[in-house]
């Protein structure tokens, strides 16, 4: 069958590669999703509302930040602004990955609804040595979307039956995952300088000013550091 | 199945804002022709954002998290992603037990 239809075999190979690449992130997201659902229930949301939020927002960081600050009745403007601050990075991410995905422009407006830190980072890494195909993007996006919707909803239904996630170290999975993804970008001098500056500025801003400002300021400081470090490298 | 209308509105607002941030880059990318330092800065976006998101947890939560983050970073260059996550989670559990 595969040899009879080379197009579908390419599609299958790309999809399988995507599923293989997204598996660690998807598995790491399960305890985080369960945790989110449980916390949201504790804040007074219903399982329906949790499922609705995961299906339409589909952004872990913004959802956690919103739930953390949730009161009744919900402060719509404040939640929308916090969401914008935390997700502002998507603008840069989309500008970077958009041209690298092999899709038509209308298709990209659908595809980018599903863009997350994890799928974007995997696609950026894949784009280093080969094109990001539609099959690859659909596979990693669908896997993570279904996974997130299911785990947050199950977490909401289980609610308070879930034990303390910190006891199992599940709260650290997100951090470990991101460190692993950063390592995928190599350890050139520019990358190391970027990571160091971003980490220090983010930690300082988080400590002295508070969330969610640390994400934007840390990222911008790291990008500025790369700009300066690359300049020195060119001159030497 | 109950959905409070204010809650529904808040979630919808979050969804619209998030979708806007996801597609806004498509309009910017068309006008971006980068080279040299600007390209280096643009290429640095991925690691810079990822690090900025996790730095407070990794660096300022406590010694267990900081040491576990260092161990995770060490093995990240040598092990596959899932193994890296496993090492990080096991490290933090053990360190929290000891420290």
UniProtKB/TrEMBL annotation, chain A:
This is AzlC family ABC transporter permease. It is a multi-pass membrane protein. The chain crosses the membrane at residues 22-41, 50-70, 76-98, 134-162, 168-185, 192-209, 215-230. Its main location: membrane. Belongs to the AzlC family. It comes from Microvirga terricola. Coiled coil: none annotated. Keywords: Cell membrane, Membrane, Transmembrane, Transmembrane helix, Transport. It is found in: Cell membrane. The keyword Cell membrane applies. InterPro entries: Brnchd-chn_aa_trnsp_permease (IPR011606). The keyword Transport applies.
UniProtKB/TrEMBL annotation, chain B:
InterPro entries: Brnchd-chn_aa_trnsp_AzlD. This is AzlD family protein. The chain crosses the membrane at residues 6-28, 40-60, 66-95. It comes from Microvirga terricola. Keywords: Membrane, Transmembrane, Transmembrane helix. Pfam families: AzlD (PF05437).
């Amino acid at each position: 069958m595969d040899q009879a239809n080379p197009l579908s075999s390419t599609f299958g190979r790309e999809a399988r590669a995507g599923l293989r690449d997204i598996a660690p992130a998807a598995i790491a997201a399960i305890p985080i999703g369960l945790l989110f659902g449980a916390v949201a229930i504790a804040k007074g949301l219903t399982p329906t509302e949790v499922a609705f939020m995961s299906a339409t927002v589909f952004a872990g960081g913004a959802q956690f930040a919103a739930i953390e600050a949730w009161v009744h009745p919900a402060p719509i403007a404040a939640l929308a602004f916090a969401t914008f601050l935390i997700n502002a990075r998507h603008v840069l991410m989309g500008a970077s990955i958009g041209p690298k995905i092999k899709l038509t422009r209308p298709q990209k407006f659908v595809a980018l609804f599903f863009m997350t830190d994890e799928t974007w980072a995997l696609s950026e890494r894949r784009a280093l040595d080969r094109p990001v195909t539609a099959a690859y993007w659909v596979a990693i996006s669908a896997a993570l979307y279904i996974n997130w919707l299911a785990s947050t909803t199950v977490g909401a239904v289980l609610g308070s039956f879930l034990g303390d996630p910190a006891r199992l170290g599940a709260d650290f999975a997100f951090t470990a995952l991101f460190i692993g993804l950063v390592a995928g970008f190599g350890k050139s001098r520019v990358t190391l300088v970027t990571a160091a500056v971003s980490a220090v500025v983010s930690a300082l801003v988080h400590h002295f000013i508070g969330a969610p400002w640390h994400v934007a300021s840390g990222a911008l400081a790291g990008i500025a550091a790369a700009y300066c470090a690359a300049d020195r490298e060119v001159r030497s | 199945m109950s959905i409070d209308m204010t809650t529904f509105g808040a979630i919808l607002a979050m969804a619209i804002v998030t979708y806007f941030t996801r597609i806004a880059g498509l309009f910017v990318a068309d006008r971006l022709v980068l080279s040299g330092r600007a390209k280096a800065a643009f290429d640095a976006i991925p690691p810079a954002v990822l690090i900025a998101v996790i730095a407070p947890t990794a660096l300022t939560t406590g010694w267990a998290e900081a040491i576990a983050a260092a161990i995770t970073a060490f093995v990240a260059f040598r092990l596959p992603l899932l193994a890296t996550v496993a090492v990080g989670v096991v490290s933090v559990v053990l360190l929290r037990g000891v420290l």
